[in-house]
Structures are given as structure tokens and as C-alpha cells.
Amino acid sequence: MEENTTPRADGRAANELRKITFKTGIAPNAAGSVLVSFGNTQVICAACIEAKVPAWLNAETPPRGWLTAEYSMLPYSTLTRKPRPSAGKQDGRSVEIQRLIGRSLRAVADLEKIPGFTIWLDCDVLQADGGTRTASISGAYVAAKIAVAKAIKEGVLPADPFVDSVAAVSVGVCGGKCVLDLPYCEDKDAEVDSNIVMTGKGAFVEVQSSGEEATFSEEKLLKFISLAKKGIAEISALQEKAISEAVLQ
User: Fold this and answer.
1) Using an 8 Å Cβ cutoff, are 68 and 56 in contact?
2) What is the fold, at CATH topology level, of the domain defined by 20-248?
3) What residues does each domain of the chain span?
4) 75 cis-preceded (ω within 30 degrees of 0)
5) Looking at the DSSP assignment, which residues form a beta bridge with residue 72?
6) Helix count (H) and strand count (E) of the chain?
7) What's the confidence (pLDDT) of residue 2?
8) Which pTM does this prediction carry?
9) pLDDT tens, 84-98?
């Protein structure tokens, strides 16, 4: 079946990203921080480095560090107020996303290079319009790299643990058409929704694809991957530029 050629709601081409920006230095007390925007979706990502690791890592041989993430949506990030989680209790979606962020960054980190240290990544959604998890992963990497560069310069960390970059983007099927980087108006009605995480060198970290009361073919899956590779290559270039400019400041 020939794909729908109807223009998208925001006028973009099917293979076009929303406007993506990385505004660094947004949280001065963090070792590294960035306000990442995927269109109207905005997430503050901040990295802090702590000179200790979880107790279960103390007996590891050889010794290694740790990297972990926390994710939350601010109450005013959605069209109607989202209640804060009650003390010590997070909703399942937030737990799933913060685990995804942590997995994605650990996939490109050699934690034996930072024994005894933990890199904390806090991702707080300021405004949600689809793709908060992909924006969080992409922004968390930028914040982490800036924090690591600063810590190495100050003699805190012995080395940079990152061996590659990592970024993520959404892909979906809307009206029979495969499209890249879905805002909420597309995401809520998509027949198929996919989030793809890749490294700068083109390796896959995670592919999450699910049909919403629909199925998808192998041909569609390959189209998702092709669109994601294009989008992530563009995001990676923006990440590199933001990190370089922040480190040189």
C-alpha cells in the first residue's frame, strides 16, 4: 500500500525532526546541565558526580563506578496538572523511563574508568509534547559529558568513561505514513509507536516498538530504523556542538 502523503500537522516532512536545541549551563549548581528541546517538549537534564558508589558495587573486582538516572514530570508540564508522586512512590511510567535513560548511557560508558564515583543524571520534564524519553536520553548524555569534562579538568575524575555518544528519537505510523519524531498530537493517535536508541557510531542500544490495536510489517520496521538512523545522526551532531561549546567556555 502506498504511504499517505498528507502533510503533517506542523508542516514537517515525514523524515524531518522537530527543531532541536541544547541550551547548556541551565542549572549552575550541577556539574553539567542542559535544557533540551524537541519542538515544544522541554526537559532539564543535570549531571552530578558523587565520590561513592552503591554498596553492592563495593566488592566488585576490578572496581568500577556507576551511572544512574532519575526522571520526573513537573506538575505543570502537561495540559492538566500532573500530581507529584507521593513520598517515596513513583508511577510505573517514570520508573520505566528512568531505567531506560540509565541503561542507554551505561551502554556507552566504561565504568571501570571511574572507580568509586557515581554519575547522577536528573531529567525533569518542563513541558511535555511527545518524546520526553527520547529528549531525556539525548540531553542526559550532553549533561554527563559536560560534567565529566569539568571533573577531569579539576582533577576529580581520572578519565572520561564514555566510549561513544548516545541519542534517541521516536518513529511511528500515522495515517499509514511512517514519520519521524512525533509530537503528542501524532503520538496519541499513532497506529504504531517506536522509540529507538542508538550510539553515535550507529549501534543499537534499544528498539521499543508496539502496535496500538494494529500490527506492523517487517518492511515498516526497517523503515522505522532507516528514519531513526537519519534523525539520530542529526541529533548526534547537535550534541557534539553543544558539548564542545560548553567545554570551551
Assistant:
1) no
2) Ribosomal Protein S5; domain 2 (3.30.230)
3) 20-248
4) no
5) 124
6) 4, 9
7) 40
8) 0.93
9) 876 567 788 889 999
